[in-house]
Amino acid sequence: MPTLDTFRPEPGNLPARDDIPARYTWDLSAICPDWNAWQEHYAALDAAITAFVKFQGTLASGADAMLTAFTAMDEMGALSYRVWYYASLHYDEDQRNNEINARRQQVQILFARQQQASSWFNPELLAIPLNTIRGWMEQSAALAVYRFAIESLFHEQEHVLDEKGERLLSYSGRFNSVPYDSYSALTTADMKFPEITLSTGERVTLTYGQYRALLETNRRQEDRAAAYRAFHQAYADSQNTYASLYNGVLQRDWFHARARGYASTLDAALHGNNIPTSVVENLISVAKQSVEPLRRYHRLRRRVLGLERYRLFDIFVPLVEHAATYPYDDVGSWITDSVGPLGREYQARVQEAFAGRWIDVFENAGKRSGAYSAPVYGSHPYMLLNYNETLDAVFTLAHEMGHSMHTLLSHQAQPFVYAGYTIFVAEVPSTLNEALFLDYMLDRAGSREQRAVLLQHAIDSIASTFYTQVMFADFELQAHRLVEQDKPVTADVLNGIYARLLGDYYGDVIDEEPVSRLTWARIPHFFSTPYYVYQYATCFASTARLMQDIRSTDRGRSGDAVERYLSLLKAGGSDYPMNLLARAGVDLSQPDTVRAVADELGMLVGKLENELITPP
Ligand SMILES: [Zn+2]
């Protein structure tokens, strides 16, 4: 009900937190009623950590002793969620608050102690033969709850070395981060950001933020070209240094893989989640065969933008100018309605998130930037936004709501030990909520402009989250294989791989631009977290596959799909991601699953062509 306290932010005017009506702020009392209660929880956690030491040396004495230790560990874990999030969410409300920052740091210190106090647990458990523990689990149903946790610990153990070997490897920990730390210093602290003069005569310093904003908003191709070339030239000028640092990353990964007895760096990266390498290989090869809808989109862009030459700096600028705003008071009911296909119960939970003040909506002075969903075990998830009424902001809200519902269902259905979930499945519910929201908005869009804006948003997100991430995974795999095959890694070699990839994906629909081959040097993920980004692409494929069934007009088929999907959310982290997805009907080793994304893109591009080039 829009009442007197309806609030909309004024552009350029950052409010103080106290000026924002309470109903647009989150209510953290579900975590702790107040700071006194927090202090009590903190003391309880402190005591639990101290007490945990007494379980050391007991695990081998039988099922009951092991269960007691596991239970104590879970209680400690559950408590640490409350203690951490109450302080950390309050801190994010206004990061200038030193008093709360101090409490937050106090928790971090406690966590370090918790880690030390429980570091004996895994080695002691792993010293017991797995068959003995299996026997205990046969007898004790309560211990059998921990079966997957125990079995996966032994699975990880397959590549753990003896004590001497582990000690030697731990010494290398000190320089593992040197390539990325150097990269980081080179691209931030030591970076000389180029300056350019725009066609208007304005001088601009190209920080990364400025550069992105220019490519996304500047309607003059010559300005975009100047920004792109200057920005990439800064990397070109140090390309041999970047290549040498990246070689450091590749050599380190190969060193660790070989030291632990893996056949390849990819095997080493996928072993923890028990994902077969064929998943990544299938993803790359099918995506490469399915580039036609991507190329069709770029042909459409070239035509609509009226560009004779169309290059990588032309791919971000919007096709239609449409300055719609989306007041927060309107979008809550839209998002709630959009999840209708997932059933009444799911919908009621989304409604509760809006009504129960789980969301901190607007920006205020000192508030943390960005958006997230915080999985607070023992209460309910909380969402932080910096809602600014743009279409991006609405989709971000739909996205975070997907994470929150995943958390809620998993926390309700699973015991503590499996309440969390891995990144490999985490981006399925968030992107699936976005897909549902897109369908809902497209159905209701009143004009061609509105539909075109929505379609472009969805298409760009497939292009950047699926195709670009697969191309990145492809690059990482090819680069790692160089060192695995004792081949040299130089700037020329890396530029060559990247240039070929651009050809594989875009063919001749994007005109060549010499500095584009240096793109690899400006992707921080390559240097910080190798073999990570492909997971966004597999999540996209899983979502596209699920949506094919959920959208089906055959009620039996869509009903089944919704059931399977909700079971996936409720399953949390209770099994390996491939098994969880398989039960939901998604097989990522199958070409069809990956092709679902291309089909979806083809459908969306077809609709966009209708809006933009077919006469009304
Ligand atoms: Zn996300």
Which terms summarize this structure?
single chain, 26 helices, two-stranded antiparallel ribbon, 616 residues, binds zinc ion, mainly alpha
Q: Tally of extended strands?
A: 5
The ligands found in this model are:
zinc ion
Low-confidence stretches: none
Globular, elongated, flat, extended or rod-shaped: what is the shape?
globular
Count, helices: 26
The largest sheet has its strands arranged as 3-5-4
Mean residue pLDDT: 94
CA gyration radius, whole angstroms: 26 Å
- Helical proportion, percent range: 55-70%
Strand proportion: under 5%
Based on secondary structure, the structural category is mainly alpha
Q: What is the straight-line distance between the termini?
A: 38 Å
Q: How many strands, what sense, and barrel or not for the largest sheet?
A: 3 strands, mixed
Question: What report would you give on this structure?
Answer:
A hairpin with a 5-residue loop joins strand 1 (195-197) and strand 2 (203-205). Helices cover 64% and strands 2% of the residues. Helix 1 runs parallel beside helix 3 (98-117) and helix 2 packs antiparallel against helix 3. It has helices at residues 35-52, 63-93, 98-117, 121-126, 130-139, 141-144, 147-157, 163-176, 178-189, 208-217, 221-236, 239-259, 265-271, 277-289, 292-305, 328-338, 344-355, 391-413, 423-444, 448-484, 491-506, 524-528, 534-550, 555-570, 577-583, 591-613; strands at 195-197, 203-205, 359-360, 372-374, 382-384. The chain contains 26 helices and five strands. The longest helix has 37 residues, at 448-484. It is globular and about 75 Å long. The protein binds zinc ion (ZN). The site of zinc ion has 4 residues, from helix 18 and helix 19. Residues 399, 403, 427, 430 line the site of zinc ion (ZN).
